[in-house]
Write a structure and sequence with these properties.
It is a single chain. The protein is of the alpha/beta class and 305 residues long. It has eight helices and twelve strands. A hairpin with a 4-residue loop joins strand 1 and strand 2. The longest helix is centred in the C-terminal third of the chain and has 20 residues. It has a five-stranded mixed beta barrel with strand order 6-11-10-7-12, surrounded by four helices. The chain binds 1,4-anhydro-D-erythro-pent-1-enitol (R2B) and uracil (URA). 1,4-anhydro-D-erythro-pent-1-enitol binds next to strand 6.
Length: 305
């Protein structure tokens, strides 16, 4: 961990019990009795939608001999399921929403590990998502090596009048390789590549079908070919921030696994049928579970059965 970047000024007082941390959007506080249930969590799985979190957790429970499922009561913003050492949390759409979930979860993981840097080093974070593919068939699964914004520069936040603060969007290569290995290598619909994280589904992804349209078909085509020539294989809306904040604290183990719903070189509209979408979504989860069940996963073995 990069201890110097952890907000000790606030978080140490929470650990000491000097003040309470309110994880407002998760509907939990650092003094909630529910915290005791979270001490074994070493894997946090993030996904955009609540129903997808429920489905992922249900599948994980099935794979773990029917391990019990627990939920945080507040579901207004983010849906949460806890099952056998894995905390599943929805994060909504876009970096603004996902950054709220992530920051509250980083604080929560600091609390449940009692600020133990070695325990924090063990935590695996994985976002399971959907995306638009770039030059690969719909239904492909992309394991991200680096996430950048639409200009191929890293995620950054506005620092008032001081300009921008950039964050490192690289994903740990060893985790990428472990996921690929657990899934029998690349090919067969699984690939690695860079990912663009747009701040908008339409404009920053160069769609021509938004209510507001900025680009011509030629500009869209040129952008897609430009990002493809720089190794980008898919486009989504959270990865660059996710990697940026996790790298800031120095977490060594995190990944993003996204299925593609369409090939953006072919179309803008997501026209796949409900059955196709379900099958595509399932593939990213299957790739995650293959990894979690492969040896060395921190989640497995916490509960003996
Ligand atoms: C992928 O899909 C969502 C938009 O449809 C967004 O959350 C993302 O990253
Ligand atoms: N999610 C995105 O952000 N873009 C797509 O094209 C599909 C899913």
């Amino acid at each position: 961990m990069r201890d110097v970047n952890i907000n000790h000024a606030f978080l140490d007082g929470v650990l000491a019990g000097d003040w309470v941390d309110v994880y407002y959007h998760l509907g939990l506080t650092s003094r909630d009795p529910m915290i005791a249930q979270l001490h074994d969590v070493r894997t946090v799985v993030l996904a955009g939608s609540g129903p997808r979190v429920v489905e992922l957790a249900r599948r994980w429970s099935e794979l773990r001999a029917g391990a019990p499922l627990l939920a945080l009561p507040k579901e207004e913003r983010f849906v949460t399921r806890l099952c056998d050492g894995v905390l599943f949390v929805s994060h909504g759409m876009g970096m603004a929403s996902a950054s709220i979930a992530l920051q509250e979860l980083m604080r929560l993981m600091f609390l449940v590990t009692r600020g133990d840097l070695e325990a924090l080093d063990e935590v695996l974070w994985v976002r399971i998502g959907t995306s638009g593919g770039v030059g690969i068939p719909p239904g492909s699964v992309v394991v991200t090596t680096e996430a950048v914004m639409a200009d191929l520069r890293p995620f950054r936040v506005l620092d008032g009048a001081q300009g921008e603060r950039p964050f490192d969007g690289t994903f740990p290569r060893d985790v990428v390789d472990e996921i690929v290995a657990a899934n029998g290598g690349t090919g067969g619909g699984l690939t690695t590549g860079r990912t663009v994280s747009g701040n908008d589904f339409f404009l920053e992804q160069f769609r021509l079908d938004g209510a507001v349209r900025l680009h011509t078909a030629e500009q869209k085509d040129a952008w897609l070919r430009w990002i493809h020539s720089h190794g980008v294989r898919n486009i989504e809306m959270e990865g660059a921030m996710l990697a940026g904040y996790l790298n800031h604290w120095g977490f060594p183990r995190f990944a993003m696994i996204c299925c593609t719903l369409l090939d953006r070189l072919q179309s803008d509209q997501v026209a796949a049928s409900a059955d196709e979408l379900r099958a595509y979504n399932e593939r990213a989860g299957t790739a995650l579970f293959a990894h979690l069940l492969s040896s060395g996963s921190p989640a497995v073995g916490l509960v003996d059965r």
